[in-house]
Amino acid sequence: MSSFWRSVSSVFMGTLLAQVIPIAGALVIARQYLPEAFGVYSVWLGVVTFLSVVLTARYEAALALEEDGAARQYAVFATVMMTLVLTALAVVVIGAMAWLTPSWLDELSARGLLLLTPSALALALSQIWQSWAAAEGSYKYLSVMRIVQAAGITLLQILAGVFLATADALAAAYLAGVLLGCLVSVIVLRINIVWKWRAIWPASKIFWYRQKNFPIFALPADSISAASAQLPVLIVAARFGAETAGWLAMAMRMLGAPIGLLGKAVLDVFKRRAAQSFRDRGECRADYLQTFQVLGAGSLAFCLVMFFWGQEAFVLLLGPEWAQAGVVALWLTPLFMMRFIASPLSYMVYIAGKQHLDLFWQAALLAVTYFSLHLPQQHDLALQLYSAGYSLLYVVYLVMSYRFSLGKNR
């Protein structure tokens, strides 16, 4: 128990600073940029986030399942190689789509389009190095990576807002901040393997084959998950306008930051401990329940704070023009409560090798997201229905992940 909490505390302190920086920065950004500009930027960021998931083929999620030492380092290199290949393919596909059917990018400017693939590649590489640090148990390095990236993005976006408060300025500053984070990540955590093709290529092929369920099942599932996460802003922007999308994006950003604070710290510890327990004993029920208790307590505290002070906090911190974002945040509170608990524990699908079941669940989530936001004619009803449907599916996910933790004992 003490070992668990020491590990969580180590990651938590670094994650705390990494989350406080963008939260504090959002208070400044909200007064520099109009909701419309923030809404357009959020659409761009949604595409970048989705693309970054595709570029890694989700092999970075398999790093914690590899043995410590050279095997994991070869896996990191193999993941980077796959990411570069898929990035080149993405450039061709996006260029063709922009030329043949330009209407799908109506919300983005030419500059925003040019920044898409480089930003997605930078974010994908950042995710690979952070996943590697977590798999190694190098929580100090993981904290440094997150803090530098968060500070770089936030400070550069604030600086950009002084001169040009546009969506393109937000996007360019985001790319620069992520690149800074990547540079620091590569410096603090280096790959030390035999740099000979005779060694690298066979090791990479073995890793790709051994973890083939990740591109086959986890990639479609997590691509759908990323789409489900970004789809609300895209649909709301198309149906109800950029201003409403800006309220939604700000609400999701402000809610996601504090609940992700402890959630990320717990996940980074849980994935390593649970994977080790599952390899040794064929189950990890104790690790699962311990993690569930921590997340449940944090979720309850978050709910109480939002219920009593959520709306007022948005007006006080962001200004009266963001008052409606506080209302949206209250509607979304049940969703983020359940996400806070379910997301870290969802790593059980990888540990238990149940990616195919995760794919079905993600498909159901995508359908619920689309229809709940697409059918109602008023934005308030659409967002409330979206929150309720999402929350119920998270309950299903928790039941699934608990059964997976039982392993052969269930």
TrEMBL record:
Species per Swiss-Prot/TrEMBL record: Mesopusillimonas faecipullorum
Residue ranges of the TM segments: 12-34, 40-62, 74-100, 112-135, 147-165, 171-195, 216-238, 244-267, 288-309, 329-352, 359-375, 381-400
Keywords assigned: Cell membrane, Membrane, Transmembrane, Transmembrane helix
InterPro entries (alphabetical): Poly_Biosynth_Transport
Keyword Membrane recorded: yes
Its membrane topology: Multi-pass membrane protein
PANTHER family (UniProt xref): LIPOPOLYSACCHARIDE BIOSYNTHESIS PROTEIN WZXC, PST FAMILY PREDICTED COLANIC ACID TRANSPORTER
Subcellular location: Cell membrane
Protein name: Lipopolysaccharide biosynthesis protein
Family from the record: Belongs to the polysaccharide synthase family.
Primary localisation category: membrane
Family annotation (Pfam families): Polysacc_synt_3 (PF13440)
